[in-house]
Amino acid sequence: MVQVIPTHIKNVWDEWNIRGIVILSLSIQTILIILAPLRKRTPNRFLALVLWLSYLLADWSANFVIGLIAKNQGKELKPDDPPQDQKLMALWAPFLLLHLGGPDTITAYSLEDNALWHRHFLGLALQAVSGAYVVIQSLPNSLWVIILLLFIAGTLKYLERTIALYLASSDKFRGSMLEIPDSDSNETNRPRKEDDSMPTENYMLYGRQKRPLRLENPGTLTHLEILQFAFWFFNNFKSLLVNNIFSSEQRDESREFFKNLQDEEALRILEVELGFIYEGLYTKVSVLHTWVGALTRTIALGSLLSAFGIFHYRTKKSHQFHGADIVITYTLFLVGIALDLISLLMILPSDWTFAVISRINEDEVDSGSWIDPALKWFLGWKQLHWKTQKCCGGVEHEVLNTPFLIQRWAGSIKLFNFIAYSVKADIKRIHDVKGRTRRLVWKTILYPLIYVTNIFKKLCKKIANWNDDLHKYIRDVIGQWSEENPVAHYAIIIVEFCFMIPHFFTFIGNYMTNFLRINDLLDEINLMRSVHSEPLTKDLWGFIFTELKSRLQRPHKERRKTKAGRKGWDSGNIELDMADPERLMRYIADVDYDRSLMLWHIATELCYQEEVSTTDNCDKYRELSKILSDYMMYLLIMQPKLMSEVAGIGKIRFRDTLAEAEKFFKRWHIENSRDVKRASHEILSVGVKIHPSEVKGNQSKSVLFEARALAKELNKTKDREDNMWRVVSTVWMELLFHAACNCDATARMEQLSKGGELLIFVWLALAHLGLGGQLSSSAKGSYETN
């Protein structure tokens, strides 16, 4: 029989398979515990890939090695094997149970993992049985006390993970919300006394504490009060995570508080609250801060330390075990203990820990406690950091520049520009926080690779052209020769076959991409090259939050339905500050959301490129409109899950518009000009007497020249002394708010594990101000009367 695997390789595998995979399992745990906290701070795709692979391999490696150990227990010892070596390997089985419990920094990679908590609970039982089977096979075993202690620690850690998954499941969130009205009904229905501590305009209750936290003057909240309010909102508005509604009392309480906040205070509370949501959904923090979690962790860590002490001081290891196995066992003990201690060090300075500790200080008598000042001092290190940047002709802006290790979210927004992508223009950042020097270094490193890649592409293109020309020339020559010699017909067949080989490989490549359905993935990779990040500016957030609060003063109007039967995104609330708003309403009213977004995106870019940025003519609304335009375009094209409720046929419309733009640029020989300003000028210079929608009707999905018509209408507003960019920014605010109100709930929570999105902050602010769709019918009724 032919051996596919050489004998020496097979022998090495048989000897080191258990040892190697045990070390692999331990290494994966180390990777997860160190890298998992970083994913809420950055959308880096390489980090996400590493964590995804590690998360999947963690369970696989532990399950696989337990099976190998069970199989190993039934083998006969070789002459050179130590007498108790198999018994030591039986000690490794409960270590794998510890690994299956997973690190504290990540219990679920995605929300779907939380829904599978039943499977993990069953896995706990099966793994316990498997481990017990391995131990029973090794009996009599002098290490049974150590194994028992490790079994206790492993079972408790696996139980912690299962409970964390259960608490983060959507069913549990809905169930927890059903319990709240019963506990508060007596308080809300009983007669009110003058000295009752009910929420008023000046202060609100924090949980069930006796002393109210007052909001006497906006801008005076301390770091600890920011944390406490965020924790209060997290615990009382969990129903938002599963798209539940809340009552008018809750709405009024939240609205009264948020409308009196300053812009930065609201941003800080929202980012801390979203941090609590992330920890509750993806980590063990919510379990470890309960008395059950504290008890299980104390017992588990105590059992692990006791097992290590017995193994080190009471076990004779010189002749009973293999030297490599002793080293591996010590590695498992020491690294396991170190990882547990690292987990505790990560949890102790967390926001959740500070919020729980600060709740102890609830009485006026304890107001002078040293705990709160210490917490305030420490939280001061985690506050938002702003950096002054020059842009827009030298105008200075404050941009978010919090150090990476203390960030609660990425602190940046992704931008994508349609015209820049269509002409393959280089990325131009409005705010370059990282600095030009750093980017120049990266370009210097990557430039040779990019240069060689471009040369290779051009060479391949030339070779393809030469191949076609040579094919045509040889075919003509042989055709003339074939008139005199019949044998030439066979030469024609051979030549045609040779020249068809490149086309054959092209056909195979296209067929494979279609068969594997990776065309969208390849398109996304190509699109990502034109996506870049911009830091959040204080002006942008201030503008958003101010617009949100101003909507509280407007009378509520019922959203009217479009011809398609869906509620229009304009919702009757949009108010254009201009003399003749009807000229622009045709691009808003009764227009699909995705079509309107692309129209305004291209028109905004055309108008933006027509103006030259200087300190004298710099309009803050111009920059805000540009950033919001590129950000919303990024969401529409690159975040289909998040925008699924409003995206419509956005990608089809994008491709049709791109095809029309490429055709137009090719006609004017600027397809590879990399010049956005020139491309914008050429689009605006085209004379179109009839409106494009009247020519093409509803059959066309492209909006390029309709956007040009919109840009022309916007430029006319300057002649009527209307603030064009104020009008444009108002439209982008409405587009942003509509997307925030209608973004998918699951995708919204998944973004918290990918660095976060500005859209989620807007959604949460809308909900807390009672402007979203999270109100009960009674609350909506009361809102309409305001």
- As a whole number of angstroms, the C-alpha radius of gyration is 32 Å
Strands in their spatial order, largest beta sheet: 1-2
What structural category characterises the helix and strand content? mainly alpha
Q: What does the average pLDDT come to?
A: 77
In terms of per-residue confidence, which ranges show pLDDT below 50 for 5 or more consecutive residues? 178-214, 363-368, 558-568, 775-786
Shape: flat
The major pleated sheet works out as: 2 strands, antiparallel
Q: Considering DSSP H and I runs of 4 or more, what fraction of the residues is helical?
A: 55-70%
- How many helices? The count is 31
Number of strands: 6
Measured between the Cα atoms of the first and last residue, the distance is 87 Å
* Strand residue percentage: under 5%
Question: How would you summarize the topology of this molecule?
Answer:
Layout (H helix, E strand, L loop, with lengths): L6 H29 L9 H29 L11 H17 L9 H5 L1 H22 L5 H24 L2 H20 L13 E2 L8 E2 L8 H14 L11 H11 L4 H20 L2 H4 L2 H24 L8 H25 L3 H8 L12 H9 L6 E6 L3 E6 L11 E4 L2 H5 L13 H47 L5 H29 L2 H10 L3 E4 L2 H13 L31 H4 L7 H18 L9 H19 L11 H18 L8 H10 L6 H5 L7 H16 L4 H19 L2 H6 L7 H11 L8 H8 L2
Antiparallel strand pairs: 1-2, 3-4, 5-6
Helix pairs in contact: 1-2, 1-13, 2-3, 2-5, 3-5, 3-6, 3-13, 5-6, 6-12, 8-10, 8-14, 10-20, 12-13, 14-15, 17-18, 22-23, 22-25, 22-27, 22-28, 23-28, 28-30
InterPro entries: DUF4220, DUF594
Protein name: DUF4220 domain-containing protein
Keywords: Membrane, Transmembrane, Transmembrane helix
